[in-house]
Design brief:
Helix content is about 0%, strand content about 35%.
Length: about 210
């Protein structure tokens, strides 16, 4: 666990390492700066990439760190090409990490993505989204073929193809929600929950055949 909002206009740089099997949590290394709304993803060697976050109200951070597998160090990498928070990251089959959307000021929805390369500890531009998206949380999932389905945070749904370098809208779906969640179960993707533009809970449940994507 990393960063977060601890009280009004106060964000923490602390991290914690949790072992759910043993039932304990202990302090981890501090981030370079306190942030709210960062994103994280596991790397092939068991370490964790943590990026971005809101450093002050409406001000995004470009920080990126790799926390070691034993939780002892937080090594600065990057930085991000675009300061962002309320974004999402997903580890890809080739070992890289896709950084998706977010916001730089809690107003503009970013349509940019970035790709983190663990071998060089740098970020390169990724495919541009069809629509700007933020408040993504769990609204992204890696499909069996390595593409990434984005199911929230902006108009409709879309599929990112990191290999071809493009993103395409999903024509079978038009519903939208912030902080929704999407998961793949066998041959289907399921989109659940979230809230609408008026911050009303949607009760959304959407089933999508993977063959239609």
């Amino acid at each position: 666990m990393a960063g977060g909002w601890v009280e009004s206009r106060t964000y923490t740089a602390s991290t914690e390492i949790v072992d759910p099997h043993a039932g304990w949590a202990r302090p981890g290394p501090d981030l370079p700066e306190g942030v709210d709304g960062p994103a994280s993803a596991s790397l092939p060697d068991g370490s964790v990439l943590i990026t971005g976050g809101q450093r002050r109200p409406g001000v995004a951070s470009q920080q990126a760190v790799v926390v070691s597998p034993d939780g002892g160090t937080a090594r600065p990498v990057g930085p991000l090409r675009q300061a962002r928070f309320k974004h999402v990251m997903r580890a890809l089959p080739d070992g890289t990490v896709l950084v998706i959307g977010g916001t730089s000021d809690d107003v503009e929805l970013l349509n940019t993505t970035e790709i983190f390369h663990p071998d060089t500890a740098t970020f390169t531009p990724g495919p541009q989204l069809v629509h700007g998206r933020y408040k993504l949380s769990e609204a992204a999932t890696v499909l069996p073929d390595g593409r990434v389905l984005i199911a929230g945070g902006g108009p409709g749904l879309e599929v990112i193809d990191p290999v071809r370098g493009l993103s395409s809208p999903v024509k079978t779906a038009s519903q939208v929600a912030s902080f929704s969640t999407v998961s793949v179960v066998e041959d289907r993707a399921w989109v659940v929950g979230g809230y609408d533009r008026n911050i009303r809970l949607t009760g959304l449940t959407l089933e999508i055949q993977l063959s239609a994507l």
